[in-house]
Design brief:
By secondary structure, the protein is an alpha/beta fold. 32% of the residues lie in helices and 27% in strands. Strands 1, 2, 3, 4, 5, 6, 7, 8, 9, 10, 11 and 12 form a twelve-stranded mixed beta sheet that branches. Helix 6 packs parallel to helix 7 and helix 9 crosses helix 10. The longest helix is centred in the middle third of the chain and has 15 residues, at 159-173. It starts with a strand and ends in a 7-residue tail after the last helix. Mean pLDDT is 89; it is low at 1-29.
Length: 287
Amino acid sequence: MKRNVMVLWCALCAAGLAFATGTGESGAAGFKGNWNFGGSTTVDPIARSAIETFAKKYPAAKISYDAQGSGPGITGVASGVYSLAGSSRDLTPEEKSKGLVENPIALDGLAIIVNGDVGIADLARRQIADIFNGSLTNWKQVGGPDRPIVVVTRDESSGTRVAFGDLVLLKEYGKTDPKSTIMQDAVTVTSNGDMVTKVGGTPFSVGYCGEGFLDQAKSAGATPISVNKVLESTANVLNKSYPISRSLYFISKGEVKAGTLEKAFLEFVLSPEGQAIVKQEGFIPLP
């Protein structure tokens, strides 16, 4: 099944309203018609598996998820293209002022990954910030081999990139410091999958990915390292000892209304069964 677009059938045995996309119908049998949302590539595995399970229970309405990145997803909700958007970053004050709402569905740690040639087991968060803004350019400067550092980052539409910037560079430098931006010469990739493949296959490289992609990263030849002597793990995210963690969301315009398919799907993801899917996909269920 293709990651970027999937179409499955699901239905609800409940009275309802037309879908937020404006292409659905409602009737005695429940919801009918097209319903779609999109956004974060990080949220994509959760959305894909949740829709698949939801579809087996309620096979009557056409659902799709477009994994384009958090930015396009959030813009899509604001403009009415989507009724829900997956997001791997917090909303900005401006986005909230437009009536957008964060609906948390999971927690996630952003792991720092390096190519196997690097031979580094730990970096301080300040060192990571210095590497990604271009202040540190050789692994020898942080105790590694005498080789140039290859920095790999996500594209600007990525919520993971925004979250990384907020949790690492802005935490270390603040918004007004020009060092709080990622270097322009960094290699840019468009998804978590591309990130782990690029770091795993590029000698002396460094990047970052969500916890749910660590197994894929290791298979590709990348190694997760600790930050401030703390390794990313579910336990360390929950006890707040790991310094680079975030929430994952479904974004809506206004509160999700009772009696809609959006509400039913969101409640499913937050149910014990839905949170088991979150865990199955390598992310952290809400406490």
